[in-house]
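Students often ask why we bother encoding 3D structure as a string. The short answer is that it lets us treat folding as translation between two languages. Here is a chain of 332 residues written in the first language.
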Amino acid sequence: MSKSNMTRLFLQSPELGLASRSISVSGDLTLSHLKLSPTLTLDKSLLNSLYFSLNGRPLPDSTLVSSLPSQSTLLLRLRLRGGGGDGGATGAESRDCYLSMYLAKKPDKVDPNETRLSKWTTCALSGEPLVHPVVIDRLGNLFNKEPLVEAMVKKTLPKAFRHIRGLKDMFPINLEWIPGAEEAKSETRFQCPISGLEFNGKYPFFALRGCGHVISAKALRELKSDACLVCHKEYSELDKIVINGSEDEVKVLRERMEEERGKVKEKKEKKRAGDEKGEVLENGKKESKRFRAVDIAPANATKEVYASIFTSSKKGDFKETYSCRSLPLGRN
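And here it is in the second language, the structure alphabet:
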């Protein structure tokens, strides 16, 4: 055997009390042969429970010595029999892992049914149960009017409700009570006055801006009418506000809100321009148009006579007589 084919290794085993020692082994041998080396004098009953590791990585017994770096330090370790018999976890370690997993605090699970019911029975701002007077905004959110107005006055509205700028952005609604629900302290307290469907989020509902009645979509669909099914007041499609709608429905309501605000702004600008309109004087200033009674005189009326109703008589045509003189007060 040539010396060039020999590999020098360092062996140690703290578990077996084997101090570090240097040995030269033929590169053609495997680690399984190394465990049988008389140099180590290992107990044969422990051979199947022993394994070598290099830099913390277990090595199979079939590993050739020539594949190991020269002057490497091999650790001879005792394999602990666990549940899988692979020298991994022991039973105690497994129990500890399970205990740690189950004792760890888990986040509370949110019940989707409770979340849905809360949106339909409580104020979107205060979280308190809905009590009259109840209002709805342009996007279909439900509020108790008092906390909403208070938040607007104090300017403490959350960012999600900043689209509510004034009383014109909230509409009072009439919720139909379920008979006996208040005394029974039922979770669902309101219903559709036509179909009787519960106001709990399972069924879509609409609020009518004109009269404030809240009616289920099923009733509006089956009893098609241009008037409210409760008070018979006429309404248009734009007067219907879907309550707690989906993202797409809220998007449509928001676009409608912006469109209505744009029309109001345009109308105000036209009115302001009309008020400021007048003849331009020589000095560049505008003369505001003054009201003249003759401009609105009836067709068959004499303009001068009609104007005299709103203006005093001309001083040039007035002649003072003895009978129209006013006597000073207090004179006998």
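Translate back mentally: The chain has a mean pLDDT of 79. Keep this in mind for the problem set.
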